[in-house]
């Protein structure tokens, strides 16, 4: 049985600065089941997150608070990353993907761009300082046809249900392709490093 999931997109229009348009995403129960199994998350929570997308929220992260995750152990590894003085290392941390409206502003006051990420915060103070560049120890992430192995912290989020040093990768302006890519990314555990401030 197929079920239509309706979400709202913020779209820039030529004659109007902003307009809200509804778009139907045809995500079948089978596809939701496949995603839930692939990323070891609760299907009902995933469905609820996708269906409850609110046009008044600037950001959408479909895997927020939905449970377990998969590991990056199956990724191709370029070899052992040596520990270097001056870097902080985080192992097996959750990563997710999000999209945002074309008018969204990050916690640092800039428009989000691909190559940026959000990290957990407590009372508005990020666990990793803004402007810090995170380097993946293995693998990379393909976003809109480009490959990224590092991300700059420019935003923060709750990271509900995620590991302490979770980060949320910005996948672009909310449109059908980016929305589906964020859902498909899922929840992946990654190890990374960053220069110690």
Average pLDDT figure: 77
In the predicted model, the low-confidence regions spanning at least 5 consecutive residues are 1-24, 69-80
Please work out how many helical segments DSSP would assign.
3
What is the terminal-to-terminal distance?
52 Å
Describe the main β-sheet briefly. 6 strands, mixed, barrel
* Major β-sheet strand ordering: 5-12-6-11-8-13
Tally of DSSP β-strands = 13
Shape: globular
Work out the radius of gyration. Answer: 17 Å
Beta fraction: 35-45%
Query: What name is given to the CATH topology of the domain at 59-195?
Result: Barwin-like endoglucanases
- Under CATH at level 1, the class of the domain at 59-195 stands as Mainly Beta
Helix residue percentage: 10-25%
Task: Characterise the protein shown here.
The protein has helices at 29-38, 43-51, 176-185; strands spanning 4-11, 19-26, 59-60, 70-71, 87-100, 116-122, 125-126, 133-136, 141-143, 146-148, 150-157, 167-173, 188-195. It has 197 residues and is mainly beta. The chain has a domain at 59-195: RlpA-like domain (Barwin-like endoglucanases, Beta Barrel), CATH 2.40.40.10. β1 and β2 (19-26) form a beta hairpin. The termini are far apart.
